[in-house]
């Protein structure tokens, strides 16, 4: 991005987040193994009994949820959050690229058969015909214990050790009631909300940052969380390692939007700071809350608007 990078005199190595299918499967297996390493290290900020370093990520996300969703900070906050997770993986020995799940490639009638859910080379799937969230039954995260738990009905967050849960569903509306359909009966998993046609429409329609954020967060981003279900659907969604593949792809789409017109989009940042507020008071100097995750400090949005900088140092294969 000419004119938007660091000073020309600065040497900068850009790590490229690009993977073909073979690379994706290889890195899935390696990242799955390292994730287990995080789950046996002691928590640094989490006070829940039995919590680990891995649980710190879900706890932070859960604690600041309303400050980072359906507000302007959605994209930049998650960009840095994913970067912190990648940092933790590398501290534990992972030396590969960050990986993303390009769900547009899998969108269709049989998303349930995506390689990302493969029990050997992917992140595993879920039980068949479940009508409630159930422990993951296949793949590397069988009996994977997580602690953070959000009870929507009671409006309460707390620690509840449990095995990682999923519930693949497609939702339909009948008589104004949302009815989950097991993914084994409808393998599309809401893919009309994140297929190539939908993404092209959002990229064309989202003419400014605020509109693009609203469309993207509410449609494809939310659909992936909802259709995987279980731990992936509430505010403790980083319990599921799929969260980070999903949100690396979310970041990739924001990066793509920024590159549609770098002079207009690269540094564009507007919107609300309070959920539901019509006041567009967000500024690039606003601090993003991370509660000391990995020993770091809160940082301003402006620090992460660009990825080809010394702080982030990466690009995408597009």
TrEMBL record:
Domain Tyrosinase copper-binding: 69-86, 240-251
InterPro entries: Di-copper_centre_dom_sf, Tyrosinase/Hemocyanin, Tyrosinase_Cu-bd
SUPFAM superfamilies associated with the record: Di-copper centre-containing domain (SSF48056)
Keywords: Copper, Metal-binding
UniProt xrefs under Pfam families: Tyrosinase
Superkingdom of origin organism: Eukaryota
Gene3D superfamilies according to UniProt: Di-copper center containing domain from catechol oxidase
UniProt-recorded Gene Ontology molecular function terms: metal ion binding; oxidoreductase activity
PANTHER family noted in UniProt: TYROSINASE FAMILY MEMBER (PTHR11474), TYROSINASE-LIKE PROTEIN TYR-1-RELATED (PTHR11474:SF126)
The protein's name in its UniProt record: Tyrosinase tyrosinase: common central domain protein
Lineage of the species this protein comes from: Eukaryota, Fungi, Dikarya, Basidiomycota, Agaricomycotina
């Amino acid at each position: 991005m000419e004119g938007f990078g660091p000073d020309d005199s600065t040497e900068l190595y850009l790590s490229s987040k690009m993977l073909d299918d073979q690379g994706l499967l290889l890195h899935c297996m390696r990242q799955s193994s390292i994730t287990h390493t995080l789950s046996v290290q002691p928590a640094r900020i989490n006070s829940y009994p039995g919590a680990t370093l891995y649980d710190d990520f879900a706890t932070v996300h859960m604690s600041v949820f309303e400050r980072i969703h359906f507000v302007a900070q959605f994209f930049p906050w998650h960009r840095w959050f994913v970067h912190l997770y990648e940092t933790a993986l590398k501290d534990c020995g992972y030396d590969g690229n960050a990986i993303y799940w390009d769900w547009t490639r899998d969108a269709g009638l049989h998303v349930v058969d995506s390689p990302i859910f493969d029990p050997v080379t992917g992140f595993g799937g879920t039980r068949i015909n479940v009508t409630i969230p159930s422990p993951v039954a296949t793949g590397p995260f069988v009996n994977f214990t997580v602690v953070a738990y959000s009870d929507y009905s009671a409006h309460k967050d707390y620690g509840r050790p449990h095995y990682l849960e999923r519930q693949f569903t497609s939702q339909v509306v009948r008589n104004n009631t949302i009815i989950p359909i097991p993914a084994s009966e409808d393998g599309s998993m809401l893919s009309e909300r994140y297929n190539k046609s939908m993404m092209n429409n959002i990229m064309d329609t989202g003419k400014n940052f605020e509109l693009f954020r609203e469309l993207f967060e509410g449609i494809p981003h939310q659909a992936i969380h909802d259709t995987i279900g279980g731990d992936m659907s509430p505010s403790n969604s980083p319990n599921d390692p799929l969260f980070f593949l999903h949100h690396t792809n979310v970041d990739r789409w924001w990066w793509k939007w920024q590159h549609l017109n770098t002079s207009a989009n690269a540094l564009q940042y507007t919107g609300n700071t309070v959920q539901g507020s019509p006041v567009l008071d967000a500024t690039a100097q606003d601090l993003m809350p991370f509660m000391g995750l990995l020993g770091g400090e809160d940082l301003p949005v402006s620090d992460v608007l660009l990825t080809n900088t010394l702080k982030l140092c990466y690009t995408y294969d597009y």
